[in-house]
Amino acid sequence: KKVGISSVFYEDLYVYRLILNLNRQKDLQEFTEDYLGPLLEYDNERNGELFETLKVFLEVNGSRKEAAERLFIVRQTLYHRIDKLKELLGEDFMEGEKRLALEFAVYLHKFLSLN
């Protein structure tokens, strides 16, 4: 069964399938704001790269070396950004349920940006 997103099949949407089923824009926006609000505000005010840093850092499961390589920055710059992430999101942003909520919020933000 096809969805209106180019040639993507519904069963291949993974987490976006859950998002499509929730599909209550206000609730999704609120969830994103609750978890990513300070970070997105920081990026908007300072033309920052923290959202992208968080996204990549989560994708590489916290590997600092791999994150720095994928972001094309030196590790010292990454350490500075991670410190800022901790300041904005909490020291525990990579732990358990909080990390899962942040990962989901990242997907939501990308989804909502497409609509």
Shape: globular
Termini distance? 21 Å
Low-confidence stretches: 1-6
Order of H and E elements = HHHHHH
Largest sheet: none
Helix content: over 70%
Number of helices: 6
Task: Describe the model.
This protein is 71% helix and 0% strand. With 115 residues, the chain is an all-alpha fold. The model is unreliable at 1-6 (pLDDT under 50).
How are the elements arranged and paired?
Elements: H1 15-22, H2 25-46, H3 50-59, H4 64-71, H5 75-89, H6 96-114
Helix pairs in contact: 2-6, 3-4, 4-5
List the defining traits of the structure above:
115 residues; mainly alpha; 6 helices; 71% helix; disordered N terminus
Task: Give a quick summary of the entry.
With 115 residues, the protein is mainly α.
